[in-house]
Amino acid sequence: MTEAVEIVEVGPRDGFQGIGPFIPTETKLSFLERLVGAGLRRIEIGSFVSASALPQMRDTPEILAACARWPTLRPQVLVPSERRGREAAAAGARDLAYVLSVSDSHNRNNVRRSPSDSADEYARLLDGLPPGTFVRLNLATAFDCPFEGRIGEAQVLALLDRLVPMKPDAEICLCDTTGRADPAQVGALFAAAQARVPQARTWAFHAHDTYGLGLANVHAAYARGVRVFDASFAGLGGCPFAPGATGNVATEDVVWLFERMGVATGIDLSALIPVARDGAAIPGGLPGGRVREALSTNPDACAAARLT
């Protein structure tokens, strides 16, 4: 085995947030239990946001409290502002993913403020977090914006210049919000970012599969030394504030990719496939991915993912 990767399951947040019919809290918890049982350890269980803007996320505090029943689980929550970050910390969240967009248009459409204002809020939030809080910084639209098109490297690097020194040990995640990035762009941006802010310790990648390049982009990021990858079981997802963007790369597809490459993920694909199959059947969801269907007709083939 070569160096292992960490897959961060974002289905319970990114995968669920755009689904119209409210998913009962107990159903969400059942999916969480099964995902943990499949070997996933860091799961983005929801977001602290306006209930009127994203009603599907209104039970995140309740779900966060229930996560104590799974000792191996690191429940991560997404926060888009200083206020929501403080609310999450007060509710007991110790893994926070703060999100802001590189593009002005997307950030204003998402949180009604400029990226510069969001950067100021990030600084203030950091000052008041409880000791030991793990912080991830998500840079949405790092590659492409639904309103402005392709984002230039200089724009991303300028934002990193400002943000990384605030907390050099934060995990930095570059996000392909629209799914329009390509492997060459992904590799080039990670190379430029790593050279620009070498003090950043951990890099992550958040891919969408809108145009079928999700796994290729994951591989391109891996080739640049990235070892943390977001994925959503059943390929559920799509940003409500990015018109046309469909789901994230499917967790089962990412596991299959890395296990075939001889890269350990710690995830039991045979346990994950049934969860993904049930996730694809959630009313109102928009599933994606390929491995789920391929292995559903031949469960014994799960063992073929691991070559060594």
From TrEMBL:
The keyword Ribonucleoprotein does not apply. One of its GO terms (molecular function) is lyase activity. Keywords: Lyase, Metal-binding. Residues 5-273 form the Pyruvate carboxyltransferase domain. Belongs to the HMG-CoA lyase family. NCBIfam families: PRK05692.1. This is (R)-citramalyl-CoA lyase. It comes from Methylobacterium isbiliense. The gene is ccl.
